[in-house]
Predict the structure of MIP18 family-like domain-containing protein.
Amino acid sequence: MADEEMNTQQDDSAIEDLKERILAALETVIDPELGIDIVNLGLVYGLNLDEKGLCTIDMTLTTMGCPLTDVLTDSIHQALAKVPEVKDVNVNLVWYPAWDTSKMSRYARIALGIR
């Protein structure tokens, strides 16, 4: 195996590890109304970490006009502050595709009694 190919695999592994740690941190952000974290609710649509440490989270809410937007955004900032590679956080609220219960994990559907 060429050194360049091995470095690429190591880089990919490091990126996947970092993504998993960011998602684990986001799993500590609980929707106060539903009592389930935003990852298992399927509210996180995407994440990106640039070379300067800016983590951009694309997420939605269960309903437009949700009064908990600021609470969730603050909780996301606090959770990601525990990931050393993340220097700053930008939360983008998106409304497409619209959220529905099919985006929830099996765990979240069972916890909320949704089939």
